[in-house]
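Worked Example 4.2. Consider the chain below.
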Amino acid sequence: MNKIIIASLLLLSAACSGNKSEKEAAGAETHAVSEKKYACPMQCEGDKTYDEAGKCPVCKMELQEVALAETDTTAHQH
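Applying the procedure from the previous section yields the following structure tokens:
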């Protein structure tokens, strides 16, 4: 009886840890997608950015991906 209980606990533990990894991986992918920002290369609307690629509503040029300040390591100073 003790062997069955121990085996059940090990199986449950393995099953739970597998689900956690899948959820973390899915969350990381979602986060990575949401970090991309797009802006007009002519800066028609100043520093306004968009979450999706498309065309500028003012000049109709294709929006270009911009680097976010939080991820840009060139301006990082201590």
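DSSP finds one helix and two strands in the chain. Residues 2-34 form the longest helix (33 residues). Compare this with Example 4.1 before moving on.
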